[in-house]
Amino acid sequence: MKLLESIEQAFRSVNNPAPHELKAIILKLELTPEKVAPYIAEPSSLPYGRTVLRQSDDAEVILIHLPQGSQTFIHDHGASTGCAFILEGRMTNVVYRLDNYGYARESGEIGLQERQFLFATRGQVHQMRNAGPSRLVSFHVYTPRLTDTRTYRTYEQVLDYVI
Hints:
The chain is α+β, with helices and mostly antiparallel strands. The protein has four helices and ten strands; from the N terminus they run αααββββββββββα. The protein has a single domain (3-162), classed as Jelly Rolls (Sandwich), CATH 2.60.120.10. The longest helix is centred in the first third of the chain and has 10 residues, at 19-28. The N and C termini lie far apart (55 Å). This is Cysteine dioxygenase.
C-alpha cells in the first residue's frame, strides 16, 4: 500500500486520540526516510519545508523538513495537540512561556533523535530547531486539524526590530 493510502486508512476514524494512541498509529505506519522521500519539500515561504499529507477536521498530518541550522518561528498549535516523530536528523524543541506582555520567554529545551517522539500539548508555545550536522525530517500529526495558530516574538526580537 502506498504511503498516502496508509495514512488515509490510519487516520480515517481518528477522533480526539490520546498521545499513546497517536504514537501507536504512527508506529504502525512503519515510516522511514525512504518512504517519505518523495514528499519532502524544500523551504520556500517558510524557513522549513512543509507538506500536508492528509487533512480533515479531526486530524492534520504534515511532513516537515528543517534544513541544517534553521528553526521554525516561535508558535503554538491553537486548539490542537501535536505529536511529532523524528525520521531523520536531530531536533531541539525549545519551550516558551508568555510573560505578562505576551512576549515569549524561553523556559526549557529537550533534544530528540531519530525514532523519538515529541508531544506538544494544547496551548504549548515552542520552537523546533535543527542545530545538527544534517537536515531534520519529522512526521507531525495534529488533532484536531490546525486552526487559530499564533506566532510569538521574544522581547529581544521586538527591541531589535524597533532599534
